[in-house]
From TrEMBL:
Family classification: Belongs to the GILT family.
Keyword Glycoprotein attributed: yes
MF-aspect GO terms: oxidoreductase activity, acting on a sulfur group of donors, disulfide as acceptor
Native source species: Enterobius vermicularis
Protein name: Uncharacterized protein
Lineage: Eukaryota, Metazoa, Ecdysozoa, Nematoda, Chromadorea
InterPro entries assigned to the protein according to its UniProt record, in alphabetical order: Interferon-induced_GILT
Length: 305
């Protein structure tokens, strides 16, 4: 089915490209296409070849060709180019056509690959996890389930994860800044801000920020997390990340996570809180992999491992 689609798309793409060529060269191109490719390019005509005739200023011998209308039997000399300049122009036209076709088909194949790797072979399961840095259950869930399961299913492109680090905290605007309080005290706020800064640095790429989250979760304070989770990661600019975590940017990101948490209905009453495809899920907390696999239709090979 894919092959048929590609061939059909090729015909459409190339036909559209041919139609876009200048009208002045239409006769050259149509007749040359008939001579070169025959079949449907001849538009109810056939080709007759007679004795050779001098062409290209006598430097090249070409067969004399007639285009014969199948209905009227009328014979018309093929309008072949008689100058090297004409051949050069046609070569340029067909080269441009070829490039157009290849570029468009390249985009087509890239699009098909995306579809095949995600939607065509199954649905995408989405998980939202609401956590906080010094919550024991959040730490265990992140380290033992969330990161390992996401890593396992990442290549399927059928598992989307979004982590909101805020928990049972609160943030209040103060001038152009925020003042935040966290369930386990200021040290947790520092770690929450650190996690939000890492997430922001990685542009919410879960494959990159989740292993760092798994490291930061449960650490006693910012210095400990900095030494073991940030300084040891060559991708993370230590000074930039710590400046974010201890400054206004970090408090802003934490407050932003708070606004997302505040939109939950019903409100958050326990941490971690998990949503699976938009629905609150207790099963996902106890066995995330099983809950995700139960949602995937059809199930990928990873579910059987």
């Amino acid at each position: 089915m894919l092959t048929v689609s590609v061939v059909f798309a090729s015909v459409l793409i190339c036909s559209q490209a041919i139609d876009s060529l200048e009208t002045a060269n239409a006769q050259h191109l149509n007749e040359l296409s008939c001579i070169l490719f025959g079949g449907e390019f001849c538009n109810n005509r056939t080709i007759e070849t007679t004795a050779t005739s001098d062409n290209l200023a006598g430097k090249v011998k070409l067969p004399k060709m007639l285009l014969v209308d199948r209905t009227t039997k009328k014979r018309v000399p093929a309008h072949l180019p008689n100058k090297i300049h004409d051949f050069k122009n046609i070569f340029i036209k067909f080269s441009g056509l070829l490039v157009k076709c290849l570029l468009t088909l390249g985009n087509f194949f890239q699009s098909k690959h995306f579809i095949r790797s995600s939607r065509e072979y199954g649905n995408v399961v989405r998980v939202e996890a609401y956590v906080e840095a010094q919550c024991g259950d959040s730490t265990r869930f992140t380290r033992r389930q969330l990161w390992p399961v996401y890593e396992k299913f990442a290549k399927t492109k059928r598992f989307d994860v979004s982590v909101i680090v805020f928990g049972k905290a609160s943030c209040q605007p103060v001038a152009d800044d925020y003042s935040c309080r966290c369930q386990h005290g200021q040290r947790e706020c520092d770690l929450n801000q650190l996690m939000n800064c890492v997430q922001d640095f990685y542009n919410n790429d879960a494959l990159k920020y989740l292993p760092v989250f798994a490291c930061i979760q449960g650490k006693t304070d910012l210095d400990y997390a900095k030494d073991y989770c940030i300084a040891t990661n060559p991708e993370l600019p230590l000074e930039t990340i710590i400046k974010c975590a201890t400054g206004r940017r970090g408090r802003f990101l934490l407050a932003l996570a708070g606004k997302k948490t505040a939109k939950l209905d019903p409100p958050l009453n326990n941490v971690p809180l998990l949503y699976l495809d938009g629905e609150k899920s207790i099963d996902a907390f106890y066995n995330l992999e099983e809950a995700v696999c139960n949602k995937m239709q059809p199930k990928p090979a990873e579910c059987a491992k």
